[in-house]
Amino acid sequence: MPKFFASNTFFIPITSFAVFLFYAINLSVPSGYSYGSGLLLLSSLVGLGSRPWLGLTIQDRSYIWIFAAIFGTSVAASIVHSNDLRDLDIASRFLLAIPIFWLLIKFPPRLSWLWAGVAMGGYSAAGIAIWQLYGLGWSDVDGLTNGVRFGAISTMLGILCVAGLLWARKEVVTDVWRWRLALGVGALSAWYGSLMSGTRGAWVALPVVFILFCLALFSKRNLYKGTALCAALLIAVSAWIAVTPENPVKTGYRNAVNDVGDYFERGIVTGSIGGRFAVWDAAVMNIPEKPLLGWGVKEYRQHLERQVSDGLLDPYVLQLSHTHNMYLEAAVYKGLVGLLTVLALLVFPFYYFGLRLRSPCMNVRIFAVSGTSLIAVFSILGLSHIGLYRNDILLFFLVSLMTLWACMRAEEYSL
Question: SS3 helix, strand, coil % of the chain, rounded to 5?
Fold first, then answer.
């Protein structure tokens, strides 16, 4: 390979544009998540000639092993259970993530392109929400794929915009206030999209994200200002909820209370939350029967049908296409082996990012809190949704995980 095509001059503009594109059009273009990630994949295949795997640390290599283990476990389960080959489509994303990870580690994107893309993604979340609410007259926002996933990605874009605000400092950029305005509006826009989606899965993680930001950023010098800002935000959100008669937050809370009451007090399944409880009960009942490698897809469906006909389960479980729980989903179809690989994907990177939450370098801390927040949001979302088994949200998680890690490592190298 010619020296130029293995250099920073060639690859960094490509990775920068690809990451910008990934975030900027993620929610606003059909399959928007595929363009930036596709460009990263193609670039990574070209970049293999530069041997990007050389010089990786033990922590870097653990990402590779986890990605490979998830793919390998999925292949093994598919062979053992004679599943359809199409079931490996999602698992293949982890295999394809390996060359992308190598590329990003060696040629991380410019930070200005990353944060600009995140801000644009926030604007697009609000744009889609406004279009669907007022242009189409919908009662809540579903985005271009699914309301839960749209809400989760919007929430995460808002969190990343806040991290970007911390990055926009005088010693880093010249137009500080332009960057702060752009990222501040991006954060508000992304959270507007999230609120209008009416989804609750990602919101539950916000207290954890708040704690992570406190651990990373608060000190005796800024504790008062930070507390005042958080209190102001809490008051503003509470006031909006109080004065808006039928907002998605109130509606979602009311529906949740009704569903839980119907299931536990009256023993009937009504609504999405009651349905989740029913399918979780089914999974907990059936996992111990095949704990190591789990059930085949068709086999498990037939088993549920028999249990419903025998009166052991509510018929509602047959209306749901999955378990609505990322951890139960792994345990049902891949057993303990599959569940451990999913937990490894969340636990090890969270630990690695967490080690840098109090780094002396501010930029390293910003990426550390961004990475831990990303994992916290999608880990908690996984309790009620199988996000990492859906293309859009899986790619958002993987590309964000790899990008934030690569940028953080680059900041550490520059110290």
Answer: 75, 0, 25
C-alpha 318 chain-centroid distance = 27
Q: How many CB atoms lie within 10 A of CB 209?
A: 22
User: Rounded to 10 degrees, what is the CA torsion of 232, 150, 281, 67?
Assistant: -110
| Amino acid type, 3 | K
In this prediction, residue 189 has a pLDDT band, given cuts at 50, 70 and 90, of: very high
Note the pLDDT of residue 266. 46
More confident residue, 270 or 195: 195
As a whole number of angstroms, the distance between CA 150 and CA 132 comes to 13
Does residue 331 contact residue 371 with C-beta atoms inside 8 Å?
Answer: no
Q: Scanning the structure block, which residue is given the tokens 């937050």?
A: 249
Taking alpha carbons only, the member of 179, 248, 215, 167 closest to residue 373 is: 215
107: phi > 0 → left, psi -120 to 50 → alpha, else beta; which?
A: beta
d(CA 325, CA 148): 13
The DSSP call for residue 109 is P
Sign of torsion over alpha carbons 210, 212, 214, 216: negative
Q: Which helix (H) or strand (E) holds 134?
A: none
Quick one: tokens of 71? Answer: 């793919």
CA 117/CA 123 separation, integer angstroms:
10
Query: Could you give the C-alpha distances from 146 to 234, 260, 364, in angstroms and in order?
Result: 27, 23, 33
DSSP class per residue in 295-356: --HHHHHHHHHHHHHTTSS-GGGGG-SS-S-HHHHHHHHHHHHHHHHHHHHHHHHHHHHHTT
The reported pTM is 0.91
Looking at beta carbons, which pairs linking 53-58 to residues 24 or more positions away fall under 8 Å? 53/102, 56/102, 56/105, 57/409
What is d(CA 276, CA 268) in angstroms, rounded to the nearest whole number?
Answer: 12
The pLDDT of residue 414 is above 90: no
* Residue 19: closest CA among 96, 119, 93, 94: 119
- DSSP type of residue 174: S
d(CA 306, CA 304): 5
Token pair of 204 as six digits = 């539950």
> For residues 85 and 124, what is the distance between their CA atoms, to the nearest angstrom?
35
Predicted pLDDT of residue 100: 96
Whole-angstrom distance, CA of residue 232 vs CA of residue 56: 43
Helices (H) and strands (E) in the chain, counts: 15, 0
User: Positive or negative, the Cα torsion across 17, 22, 28, 29?
Assistant: positive
